[in-house]
Amino acid sequence: MSSLDDLQRLLAERSARRGRFTLSSGRESTLYIDARLTTMSPDGLVLIGQLGLEAITNAGWPVQSIGGLTLGADPIAYAISYASALAGRPIRAFTVRKEPKGHGTQRLIEGPFQQGDRVVVIEDVITTGASALRAVKAVREAGGEVVGALAVVDRDEGGRVVLEQEGIAVIALTSASSILANMS
User: Fold this and answer.
1) How many domains is the chain partitioned into structurally?
2) Three-state SS string across the chain, please?
3) Is 16 left (phi over 0), alpha (psi -120 to 50) or beta?
4) Alpha carbon distance, N-terminus to C-terminus of the chain
5) Average pLDDT for runs of 10 along the chain of length 184
């Protein structure tokens, strides 16, 4: 399994639901995509790792680390990092906490992120872009350079535009409309 068609099928089967939902952005929608049901599964991890690494490579983004806001970005970043090690071009993965720890180092970014890293911010589903922007802010404040953002799904509801207005190039592996087209 290694194609975009496979990813869209998995997301349609496992992660997408029709109904009436309030999204984390506060928006109402008739489509809910819980990408974690795919991104945290063994076959989803393998597929997303390969496709994510391929997308970053094809974009020509020179990166040392990848990560985003916990919890949605975590399995995606880890899968891509693992795939990068297998490919002989290791990219370190990190996670951005929603709040700094109240003990220990009190860091907002956890993992092997280093000041000066060129970074791709990871997102599971982009709706408004708010979660990705929180991660971008944390990376920049920690001395990282954001070269782009990679999402598994773009809901095509303006989040991409918000990120691009901040000077961040965006790649989405698929879109909500492509997932809808694969739903039975």
Assistant:
1) 1
2) CCCHHHHHHHHHHHHEEEEEEECCCCCEEEEEECCHHHHCCHHHHHHHHHHHHHHHHHHCCCCCEEEEECCCCHHHHHHHHHHHHHCCCCCEEEEECCCCCCCCCCCCEECCCCCCCEEEEEEEEECCCHHHHHHHHHHHHCCCEEEEEEEEEECCCCHHHHHHHCCCCEEEEEEHHHHHHHCC
3) beta
4) 21
5) 85 95 85 95 96 97 97 97 97 92 75 97 95 96 97 96 96 96 88
Are 102 and 109 within 8 A, CB to CB?
no
Domain boundaries, position 167:
41-176
Question: 9 lies in a domain?
Answer: no
